[in-house]
């Protein structure tokens, strides 16, 4: 056994344990008896403690020292890069600080949920203040001596290789264009709204068919219901959840397709990378690019919604929509709303950009938590043209900050930007794609994504895998062009 | 923090990790996508490796040395006793031997399954030979210098405090009496057999009602289907499985009640013991006493089956059984058969006693694996009066030996013996129990078991908890008296 073999054997066990820990989360959201919650908290903490101890295991440094990277192939060097980054990260954060963050964010989630239920930001503010202070301390430890900012260091946890300045430039170009397009759409005549009651069992049956049509492999996956849809797991056990609402079947279908995008990414990774650092999606942004392109550029396209319209008629009978064109416009209707997760394709990124600016200001100290609610409400009104009516529709709507996810929000929009780039390249590579999609056949599209993005797993850096797939550096232009064209056509502007 | 506090904090984390590992087993048998199997093997191995490292952690010995037991209360001393035994056990078995056993038994299970499917004992014999040799080596390490036999040491894993000689005396008294009763029953006129087709969804609905009537708490549990029914987990997350067969609803109902007995034991333990060594059922024998008394002495009693008869009529309509008395006799019918797990209350223990004698002979070297099949067949014919027709109905029917469970079988009969003792004492304490059971109300019975057995968890030694509950040392006489009275009445002998 060489040092590399020893390191990889150790890492393989760590990856397996991380899968176990992740599945506890799946279990909790789907099948766990509700009375098990207190015990589950201890089980998760115990797994975290085991994983943390492995991440800072001193043998890793010894192995890394003993390995000569030039003796390795590309895969070996990529593994080393991931392991080294994780180890450096764990080593930079003092155990005492990591434990404090874990403790505070664990309690903060409950405080946030109560404050949201009570629509009382003041009840959450002191806790959030504590979280921000701790994350700032962590960010400083991560950035120290590296010539990068605290927020850059936070971003690395979710999107390695992307700096705050890159995002500022990209998002700065997006925001005015999105606002402009949004304003034009709001002045135009809106499509009708879907009405009626849609049997939930029939929704689940069709959602399962949709998942299979998008290439989700149910021999290594499964679909359950959960309050918040998610995808969970890597390798040979990648599970998704969805939800049903009798009045809103699109919520079920597009949640499913979104999560299938995440799951298909994990299932599409080269099986040689199973239980290695390359065997997981490479970043949150690239992950979101897959879920978004499945959901929007493919799933909400005119061609694919034509097929879905027929499927819905088969499942629910005549549901009051005249034809495919009307159905397409209904699916893509732009509606006023406060909630990011319910936002349409056009407005979604404005929600994200707001959070990106506010959380950078919080981290830099330019914005105090005590001023956050007012800052949120001002910015929201500036971007959307109407006032936030209550904190649960505003600053308290997302769980992220309470659990210490700072630097995570921008990956949503980065994923949309990447999806725009990939879609442009995919359409060039597959000029007849719409004919397939109109038959409900996504295999050419998902196959292209598998071969150009998914199979690589962690082999390349996030931005690199997108650039390779597209043949050029990613930027916001393709997403903007796609949105402008799509909504100009739907809204006749 | 005292040394005791440190030890218990460490132990609490270990217990939480053990719960996580156990739940992986539940997941595998119920919801895991079938394609996940190879990855799951690595996940389980990784968890086992973590748990093993904790069991042999050198800090445990330091803590144990630093603790003065006389400063502790009964609970503290009981915790210490469990931790010390587990640590001594882990320390006695060389890591290399433990790893070999894990590797060999993991592969042996597959070899056994294939041999059973092919009805070919010779295909399994070399593997079993290897397992026996390794377990003998392990038993020798466990027994060394303690003045106990190898088989005594194996027993300790499942039934601490019970020696082979105790079981030999008890089982020696049981066997002739059971054979005699069985012979008399076989000469008498048998009750009819249940016939018909029973809707499986209706079986599941009634099985869930049965589980609740036996006090299973579904806020900390759940019922799923699995090929082999089992109970899994301790504390606040105790799940059971059952199965359905359209032709045999009793299989579903009594599997459920049996597993509810196991699960109720775990749920009934004093909540102060959560995630400590006292927070689990104390031994396999005591566990089986609960599952068996729920299933047989309560569930198959004349009074309770009267209620069940009415429930089945409600669920399935008239199913061709005239009255409660006939139903009772059908439920308790003694039938010929080869399979232990399908055996009735009367014959079950004869199956176990056969295995007990054979596995002791294998461990002592008095019996060679090459002679095992013939020895099994001879003994079976002697005890049951007809020949084994094929290995899958004989020596290959149980998984236990392939996975290294030697010393486990006798705990099934010990559990029945304990159930007999508990039932005798419970009937004295609850003279009007039958009136409750006839209404489907088991709460007095299960309440008595909870207060006298279940709540103690691991506080007392296994035999001690039974003796305390019964007010006398346990023995086989009550079980025999119960069986003789019951079957004499049913078979009119």
TrEMBL record, chains A, B:
Catalytic activity: Release of a C-terminal amino acid with broad specificity, except for -Pro
UniProt-annotated binding residues for Zn(2+): 258, 262, 288
Residue positions of the active site: 259
Gene Ontology biological process terms, A to Z: proteolysis
Pfam family, one: Peptidase_M32
GO terms for MF: metal ion binding; metallocarboxypeptidase activity
Name recorded for this polypeptide: Metal-dependent carboxypeptidase
Organism name: Sulfitobacter delicatus
